[in-house]
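assembly run, all chains below
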Amino acid sequence: MVQQGKLKVLVDKIYELEEAREALRVIEDREVFGKIVVAP
Amino acid sequence: MKAAVVREHGAPDRLNFETDFPDPRPGPGDVIVAVKASSLNYHDVFTRRGMPGIKVPMPAIMGLDVAGEIAEVGPGVTGWSKGDRVLVDPINRIEGGLMGETVHGGLAELCRAKAHQLVKIPEGVSFSDAAALPVAYGTALRMMRTNGRVAAGEKVLILGASGGVGVCCVQLAKIAGAEVIACAGTDAKAKRLADLGADKTINYIEKDFMKEVFAMYGKPTRRGAGTDQGVDVVVNYTGGDTWVKSMKVLKVGGRLPHLRRHRGLRPAGGHPLHLDFRAEGAGLQRLGAQRHRHASGDGPAGQAQGAGRQDL
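ok done. output:
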C-alpha cells in the first residue's frame, strides 16, 4: 500500500542519534503528529 | 559504536548518547545491520521507565523498528548479502525476543538481528518510511482490519488520532469506506487529521468527546430507538479515564480495539475491570491489537512476511 501510494507514511521529524533523548521526549509529551524517526 | 543507551530504568535523562559502546558481532544465523533509520514508539517510553513483569537486560538499546543496510553476514546465513536494504521484524518469532527491549534495537550505528527477521525494502521506499511501519502501522492494520474488521459505512471514533498508530488508523478506516471521527489535543492537529481524511474532528482538550459524539450520533441504548445510535468502533490506545466514555459512545455490539500496554484498564474513580465484562455482556467486543493465533500473516510480521510484504 505504501509503495503504491495508497497509504501515506507520516514521518513528523527525523532526529540525529545524538538527539535520541529529545526524540523520545516529543513522543512522551504527545507533541508528535505521526512518526518520529532517529537516523544514526 | 555510537548508541543511545539506557543503563538503568527511569526518567528521560536515563537515555544517554554514548560513543564507545561495543560493536555487535554476528553469531550463526545473524546479520549486522548498519542502521539508517529507527522509529520510536510509546513502547520505548515504557521500556526506559521500566514496566512491572518485563525484565529488560541492561544496558539496553531501544528502538523496535530498524531499517538499514546489511554490514556483515554471520555463519550459516544464505540469501542475504552485504549492502542489502532491509527492514527488521521487531519480533523474533523463532527464538523469541523483541528488538529494542530484550535484545538491542535500532538506536545505534549497528544492530544485530536474525536473518529470518529480515524483509527486503522495495525500491522507492526510503529507510525512514520503512522504519516507521512495523510497530505503529502494523498495530493499526490489526486494529482496523484483522481484529477490528472495519467496514464501509461504519462510524469509527479514533482517540489519540495524531500518534503513529492513529494516523494510520484514520487512513485505513477511510480506505475501508468508514466515517472517521478523529480526536486531537490541539486545533492544529485536528486540522491535519481532517486533511488526512477524517470526516469529523474533536478537540478533546476543549470538549468532552463523549458529549460531542452523543451530539453527532445520538446516545446509544441497549433497547429502543437508541440501539442504532453511537459509533461502531472506538480505537482506544489511551486507556485510563477514557475507557468508560469509550464504552458509553459505542453501539450495542460495537468494537473497542485497544492495546495491552496502555495506561491501565482501571479508570480513575473506582470502576474496576468488571466494567469491561459487564459491557461485553451488553454486546461489546473488546479487541486487542495483538496478533491472534488465527490471524497469521498479518501484523508486524505481516509487514514482513505475508500480505504485509506486498503492502510495504
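Residues 1-40 of chain A form one domain.

The mean pLDDT of chain A is 95.

not gonna interpret more than that til we talk
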